[in-house]
Write a structure and sequence with these properties.
This protein is of the alpha/beta class. It folds into 2 domains: 34 residues; 437 residues, Alkaline Phosphatase, subunit A. Helix content is 37%, strand content 16%. A hairpin with a 2-residue loop joins strand 16 and strand 17. The protein is globular and about 70 Å long.
Length: 481
């Protein structure tokens, strides 16, 4: 007893008190500098979410983003340039290229020879939208889509360009578009993540998890990749010897410990971990049924070109519709192998059939179900391809290098005006001559359609209010219905 008394006296000495207090104050000061959310209750995820409700009535409730990884050639798909047939094999005028950057892959090739597209362009629908013959199914929904031919970006290589269109910045570590929407709007289904990613295709540029990162936003807003085979999410199934009740008991016990720690230090990442454990348990019930597309009628499978048990873009498009029906806010499909530096005629013949039918089926299916009006569908990649050929120009083959100066993307539903073409490039398909749309304008327009003012959807990090559109961006009214 006496020993305990002396121990208490030692702990209460002035020197001990000051050393313990100064350390605590120092830790708090450092924490407030490195992570303001730890020191400012108003920056907690829950309060931030409550403050970021739609700023005005939204047209769209959710987004399905069909991302064509690698940079599809706009000249061969959506932006016909008949003049190139006359100039095929001739040097691209230096005045057209100007002082624009050229990648290391073509910088030293000596000649920049014009390569005309080998594909015919066909007018579709009442709107007369012109698309390549390689996209006959998308042609059938021409009156529902708005083709932007004047997109432009800043990076000239794949990873920075994907990072830029997803985060609005060339700096790694910023939140992605899906995370921003999850942060601002949340989900309509508490049994599934707000932001889900599906991958398809083989080869081409790698698709890395950073492309659906939450960045400096709380961890609960990170995208979750669903796999096409095996467990949709790793470790979702119970391990051998563990049943549902046992796993629930384990999760409850771990979360009680996490809650004690959260009550002590108020670290929002601990709360995010608690939420993720609880969501994972609920997903055990909801995800297996969701991923089983064999329950779809035969007519639906044929419409998409999907086959149960087969990992494909078609299956992922069908899954995207099922996720949208269940209230998932942001669904992103990455389809790889659009990086066509060589042999475009044959590569297009392989790639377009993998995506054409399912892309059109998704839009038409949403329309038939009355969901297209409040679902925004986007189709496009990180940049376009050059007018000039990469490598030797062959009679029946050509390739194209990266081209950030202009390219095409289309959007449908969710408040978009269908049947229009916006923006114009020059007769070479190399420079924009009318209505340029920067990546930040594109992002601002997406947020606007979901009822969010891109200048007001912010998050304070390291002493600065960050936003998806950085310090730029303007909504494009001509695209709005």
């Amino acid at each position: 007893m006496q020993q305990n008394f002396f121990e208490m006296q030692r702990l209460l000495t002035r020197r001990n008190f000051l050393s313990r207090t100064s350390a605590g104050l120092g830790a708090a000061a450092v924490a407030s500098l490195l992570n303001p959310a730890l020191a400012a209750p108003t920056s907690s995820p829950e309060n931030a979410l409550a403050a970021a409700l739609p700023h005005f009535a939204p047209k769209a409730k959710r987004v399905i983003y069909l991302f064509m990884s690698g940079g599809p050639s706009h000249i061969d798909l959506y932006d016909p340039k008949p003049k190139l047939a006359e100039l095929h094999g001739q040097e691209l005028p230096a005045s057209v290229r100007g002082q624009q950057r050229v990648t290391l892959m073509t910088r030293n090739q000596g000649q920049f020879l014009v390569a005309a597209s080998k594909f015919k362009f066909i007018k579709h629908g009442a709107s007369g939208q012109e698309l390549t013959e390689m996209l006959p199914h998308i042609g059938k929904i021409a009156d529902d889509i708005a083709i932007i031919r004047s997109m432009h970006t800043e990076p000239i290589n794949h990873d920075p360009a994907v990072n830029f269109i997803q985060t609005g910045s060339g700096v790694v570590g910023r939140p992605t578009l899906g995370s921003w929407l999850s942060y601002g709007l949340g989900s309509e289904n508490k049994n599934l993540p707000d932001f889900i990613v599906l991958l398809s295709g083989a080869g081409g540029q790698p698709v890395v998890s950073r492309y659906w990162s939450n960045g400096f936003l709380p961890a609960k807003f990170q995208g979750v990749q669903f796999r096409s085979q095996g467990d949709p999410v790793l470790y979702l199934s119970n391990p051998p010897g563990i049943d549902g009740a046992g796993r629930k008991s384990l999760i409850d016990g771990v979360n009680e410990l996490n809650q004690l720690k959260y009550d002590s230090v108020a670290d929002p990442e601990i709360q995010a971990r608690i939420n993720s454990f609880e969501l994972a348990y609920r997903m055990q019930m909801s995800v297996p049924e969701l991923m089983d597309i064999s329950t779809e009628p035969k007519s639906a499978l044929e419409r998409y070109g999907a086959q149960p048990g087969q990992a494909s873009f078609a299956s992922n498009c069908l899954l995207a519709r099922r996720l949208a029906e269940r209230g998932v806010r942001f669904i992103q499909l990455y389809h790889r192998d659009w990086d066509h530096h060589a042999d475009i005629p044959n590569r297009m013949k392989q790639q377009c059939p993998q995506t054409d039918q399912a892309s059109a089926a998704l839009v038409q299916d949403l329309k038939d179900r009355g969901m297209l009006d409040d679902t925004l569908v986007i189709w496009g990649g990180e940049f376009g391809r050059t007018t000039y050929n990469q490598g030797p120009l062959k009679p029946d083959s050509y390739g194209r290098d990266h081209h950030p100066r202009c390219y095409s993307i289309w959007m449908a539903g969710g408040g978009i005006k269908g049947g229009i073409t916006y923006g114009q490039t020059d007769e070479f398909g190399y420079n924009i001559v009318e209505n340029p749309v920067h990546i930040h304008d594109f992002q601002a327009t997406i947020l606007h359609l979901l009822g969010l003012n891109h200048e007001k959807l912010t998050y304070r990090f390291q002493g600065r209010d960050f936003r998806l559109t950085d310090i730029g961006g303007k909504v494009v009214p001509a695209l709005l219905a």
